[in-house]
Write a structure and sequence with these properties.
About 5% of the residues lie in helices and about 45% in strands. It has nine helices and 53 strands.
Amino acid sequence: MNKVYFPNRMTQAFLVLLVCGQCSMLSASARARVAPSGNEISFRQTVKGTIKDAASGRPLGGATIGVKGASQTATSDDNGAFTINVPDNATSLMVSYVGYVTQEVPIAGKTTVDILMQTLSTDLSQVVVVGYGTQSRKDVTGATKTLKSAEFNKGIINAPQELLQGKMAGVNVTSASGEPGGMLGITVRGPGGMRVNNTPLFIVDGLPLDNSSTGGGDPLNFLNPQDIESIDVLKDASATAIYGSRGANGVILITTRKGKAGASTLGFSAGVGFSTIARALPVYSASEFRKQVVNVGGLLDDQGGDTDWQKEITRTAITQNYNLNLSGGADKLSYYASFGMQKQQGVLKNNDMDRYSGRFNATQKFWDDALVIEANLGVANTKNQRPPIGTMIGDAIANNPTYPAYDASGEPAKYQNMNNPLVTLALEDDITTINRVTGNITPSLRIIKGLVYKLNFGIDNSSSTRDIVSRPNAVPQRDGRLETWNVYNRNTLIENYLTYNFDKGAHSFLVLGGYSYQKFFQQGRNTSINKFPITPVDPIYNPGLGQELTLAANKPGGFAIENELQSYFARINYGFDDRYLLTINFRADGSTKFGENNKYGYFPSFSAGWRISEEKWMKGSFFSNLKLRAGWGATGNQEIPPKLTQALYTTSVSAGTSYPLYPTGAYPGGTTFTRLANPDLQWETSKQTNVGLDFGFLGGALSGSIDAFRKVTSNMLLRVVVADPIQPSSDTYINNKNAQVVNQGLELDLEYNYKSTGGMNFNLGGNLTLLQNELRNSPYTVIPSGSASGAGLTSATINGYVNGESLGTFFLKEWTGFDKDGLSTYRDVDGDGIVSDKDRIAAGTALPKVMYSFHASVAYKGFDLLANFNGVGGNKVYDNTANANFYKLRLSKSVNTTPEAVQYPEESVNNAAPVSTRYLKNGSFLRLNNLTLGYNFNTRALGISKYASMLRLSVTGQNLFVITKYDGYDPEVNTDRTIDNFTSYGVDYLSYPKAKSIIFNLNVSF
């Protein structure tokens, strides 16, 4: 049975503009009084009102207001306010705004109206961001998806990936743990590589990031979600080929907010959230523990207490979030500036993440707008304090609940035979501080009509300090140790490109050509020292108090990495009669990551579109939009460790260092190969075919898209054993020409918007992804990729890459029950009478075969309610936590377990618990991701519109419940158990528990 766990704006005070606006409208009204025939039109009183975004309450300046059946029009000002004169016989107004649903507003008997505009995400005039430019949605021929800020997920957000979780078909975002700032997994149309990083290429305001994490945590934690205006995802190769060797895993383009000329705004938001552990593991209480230990024949160690150790290490965590932004501009200058602060507590004690961020974006125009200079600057400081998470959780779920947590004096109790996690909390810390600056300046010059040159110079510079401290202590005895890591990361970019846009009759052309150079440098240094005296001075603040500094235990270390990428790229967009569309992309990438014989790779793509709804024979049909798309392209993946193409040496004086063909006896010290050079090594290649259909019905109220795709990744990068026995190195890296990873599937997006004349607005939408992933023609039957942890389990293989199966396939012995002695039995697959590793089977995959989400919103007058659900199916999770902890033998020794340990009465107390399908569980789930209830106050009715143009209160519930059969902390989990850089999937071992949260928010604009 499934289990359900509920686990701004400053007022526009420019009277000149106001008076001019009124005079303009009066002048227009005076002209409108005279009909073309010269007859006078009779007017009744004027109608006034405001126009705002229904989701955010933000005033919409520049909206067009017209009288239905007449020629009178008006435009809303920067506060969304308007005034219009209407004829006596007028019954309604028509209100339109780019990117929003056009509304008909009844005005019979009304002199004031307040209008909330609903966004139209499928609006064909919507501008979407593509590689090195923008396009109108109607002209896009590739598989792309745009998410605007009003559509983002709500709640406590640390990284941009969380904003789009469950919002896009084909995009799978997984939070591997509930730790604040922890790594987020994201794949677009399935993972393609085995040894390489499968993360998409992230580009922020035109600056490509390198996906490296300076100091740990997710590499995008530096971005304040409040600064993001939109996120565009390029999914198929016809769209991503413009990024060549980095486009195989998809491209995610993040655009931050910009100011608007003539609209000065001051915005402020404040939020406070309360988080608790969503699902605790059901370990025994003290009273039940006493019974169960006796029942299994164990010797009860009863200290008379009643302690819930999970409760002792967790807390009600508080998150505070404050944001201040200013935006506006004049005719030639626009700007956006912001400051954000988020202080987040984790649900585990002593776990805190603080982020301070600032941003300044500006656009300046010169020479009759021929020269436009855009500048974007972002700074961030994050500090992450982490307790010893694995140790804490391991102790909390295993500790005897009859042991008191505190002694008679109220201090954490200290035991010789058991670790009190509260003592561990006081003694151990892991603190990382990261400073990061990203920015770019992009001047563009219009040389002649249609021809524009653009320069993009950007830099991403970060530094981090990580202190891992174990403080000295008497009981339990600790010598004390401090280890410090300093990491520096610098990413510089310079691009030059030309775009030429021209029309000739029914033909339209957009031609792009350019050059890009990007350099990455990363350096790390580490030092350590042992044996600190027990003093009030923390070792972090005075490492010099350490008394032991030996090369054996404290040898300094470090690394340095430098990579360069030089590229040439081009694109041609052609359209005929606004019906037939063609896009051709090409990029040549040269990378220092690859061998001398393969420095450059070439990545073409082609795509075409047919706007069927624009055909004459389709006019008057019930389709408001119908476009057929098809494309093919080749992209690459160069996200591999550096210098694999070059030889690697080691110098040793140990007698164990051997040399090929050397006589027997002691070997002389010297330098030997540990890796051979391979000048032929290159990137993996992904070729993708996509066929899609965009459609719209009911005047655009119902819209969506369906895409079928097939992505084949080949030229797989593998490390293989050298066949020649006299080679100086035992293995080398190669590109296997035959091995392939095939991802194929179907994506469906649907959206329905309903607007009633009574002010009720309703939206319902969702997406579905069907995905099949398979490894083919691998030279190995299985490549181990995920290993187990825990006593007696360490390094045992859990999952791997199995030929003919999905990546992340669990490769295990099949548990079949118990024999007459209560010992586990396993299937003898090969029938040789011996159960061994040769009898392992492919027992399912950690990759979901079905991903889906759906959302619904309703708005009435000032109220709005929004719910987002997401889920997956067809995947499994290996419960390494249960495997290592929850079995009878441990319970008999007075170690706590869950009821899973005594699930089978016939099981012997001495039964071993090796890795097997016994602990492989269903990972499917349906989650209520977030639920938001908000109210937009009518500032005019409150008499404060002069000071506040928008005032909104809202409450959001995040991760309120999850429906799943999985009985661990959460089914969405992936503890990193990588083997030899082969990515692991779906392993749960002492994972940080997820939180459920309630967040209260205030938003105000002046």
